């Protein structure tokens, strides 16, 4: 079984940028992440504003195996703040 890693920092930074710029246009590409030696991306990955959510489509190449890829769709959601405990 292989492994792969993915930094969530670009996804979080894109969500902050969308909020600061007030992006509301459906399908807006907020950022593109390219394959580099420090990530496991098999192809360019776009971070988009879709249906009111920040979404990243990712294709990762598995490490420590002869071959293998995994395709992911990651959505950043805002959870409501919990009420402070008394």
UniProtKB/TrEMBL annotation:
Example GO CC term: the record gives: membrane
Record localization: Membrane
| MF-aspect GO terms | GTPase activator activity; lipid binding; metal ion binding
Q: Which UniProt keywords apply?
A: Calcium, GTPase activation, Lipid-binding, Membrane, Metal-binding
Top-level lineage group:
Eukaryota
Major subcellular site? membrane
The cross-references to PANTHER family, in alphabetical order and at most eight, read: PROTEIN C2-DOMAIN ABA-RELATED 11-LIKE (PTHR45933:SF43), PROTEIN C2-DOMAIN ABA-RELATED 4 (PTHR45933)
Q: What is this protein called?
A: ARF GTPase activator
Originating organism? Solanum tuberosum
